[in-house]
Amino acid sequence: MTYSLPAPQRADSPGEWLERLYWASRDDLYAYLATLLGDHSAAEEVTALAFERAFRKRRLFNPRRGSERAWLFGIARNAALDELRRRRRTTPLAEDFAAERLAADDHSERTVRRAAVQAALARLAPRERELIALKFHGGLSNLDLARVLGVSESNAGTLLHRAITKLRKACDEQA
User: Scanning 10, 17, 118, 128, which has the fewest C-beta atoms within 10 Å of its C-beta?
Assistant: First the structure.
C-alpha cells in the first residue's frame, strides 16, 4: 500500500504546507508511534513534536532523497528514540507491556486477536517492531523504509521479511 500526499501548490505557504502534511500523515504517524512507544499518551506528545520539528526543519527537506512522508517518519522515529532514551534515564521500561493489555480481558474475538498480536510484537526485537510499524501503520514503501532506517532498499525488504516471519511464528506460538 502506497500513500501519497496531495501535490504541493506553487504558492504553498509554510502553514499550508504543514496543514497538508498533517492531514495526510497524522493518523498513520500516531499509529506508528503508539506501536513503537507502547504508550498512547507518549505517542500523542511525540506526534506533535514530530510535526513541530518538521515545520522548523522544512527548509532541509530534499525531495531527491525521498518523500515528505518518509522524511516525516524519520523525524518521528528520532523523536521516539529520544523519548525512549529519556524513559531509560528516569524509569525502567516495562519489558512486557502486553500483559497489561491482556488484563483488560475483553472477550471479543477482535480484542483477543489484537492482544495476541501485541504480545507477539512485544517478543520481537525493537528494530523488528519498528520495521513492522513503519510498514503497516506508516504505510511506507520498502524504499521509504530504507531511507528512514539508513539501509539499502533490498536490505530493508530482507529485514522486513524476517521480522514478519518472526511475528507469524510468535503469533502461532500464542495460539
Answer: 10
